[in-house]
Design goal:
Number of helices: 7
Strand content: under 5%
Number of strands: 3
Largest sheet: 3 strands, antiparallel
Helix content: 55-70%
Structural class: mainly alpha
Radius of gyration: 21 Å
Strand order of the largest sheet: 1-3-2
Distance between the termini: 38 Å
Length: about 230
């Protein structure tokens, strides 16, 4: 279950002030446009990282896949073309940011279609967001949004989730099994290639369009509910 912390401006805030902040948090948590705004910020950052990676590829400091990048960096060391190591690769950071951007769209789509799933704890100190599992990007999360994924997109989402959970930030996961390839595959789960970048962009376009449609539908339903019988 995901949680969005709600804190008052001072430690000694009154119950009424905390209640006001809780209302504000719920309003933001159930706002499709708010989730879209956060997603767009992450996506913009991801595109800057992607351009940085593509420059590294052009300069021979990175490759077009995880395996190729390792080979390129190994050759840099062997050939001693530099007196110092080449700049650190950044493609895995792109995958993390892109995954977080898609995660935000999926969550926005979920709450736009069902705002009632967002509730306030009894103490008023937390907003409860009932996401499946860890709450991070996964095919199960996107399924909750009633968004249909192709088999290829499902595999892409699961790999992006790996980068969101650990591979975009840490060298190893807590769950050792996430280091190993899936049965029948040879590449580690935290793998990427340039083909992923365009596939992620296409999936993001579809998710964002679905969120926009859901927001407009929510507005229409809210207006109809306010009309006198």
């Amino acid at each position: 279950m995901g949680r969005l912390g709600v804190r008052s401006r001072t430690q000694g805030s009154s119950a009424s002030e905390l209640s006001l902040w809780a209302e504000t948090a719920v309003e933001e948590a159930t706002s499709g446009p708010a989730w879209r705004f956060s997603s767009d910020s992450l996506w913009r950052s991801a595109q800057h990282i992607r351009r940085l990676h593509e420059r590294d590829v052009k300069l021979g400091r990175a490759g077009v896949s995880r395996r190729h990048t390792r080979e390129v960096r190994l050759m840099e060391v062997i050939m001693r073309r530099y007196h110092r190591p080449p700049p650190a690769p950044v493609a895995h950071v792109y995958m993390m940011l892109a995954g977080l951007a898609l995660e935000g769209l999926a969550k926005g789509l979920i709450v736009a279609r069902d705002p009632s799933r967002v509730t306030v704890s009894r103490s008023g100190g937390h907003v409860d967001l009932r996401w499946p599992g860890s709450g991070h990007l996964s095919a199960a999360l996107v399924d909750q949004a009633a968004f249909v994924l192709t088999p290829v997109e499902r595999r892409l989402i699961e790999r992006l989730g790996i980068f969101v959970r650990w591979a975009g930030r840490y060298p190893v996961p807590r769950a050792i099994v996430e280091l190993a390839p899936h049965p029948g595959e040879t590449e580690p789960r935290a793998s990427w290639s340039h083909g992923d970048f365009e596939a992620v962009s296409a999936l993001r376009t579809r998710l964002r369009r679905a969120l926009d449609d859901a927001v407009l539908e929510r507005i229409r339903l809210d207006r109809n509910s306010q009309r006198p019988a």
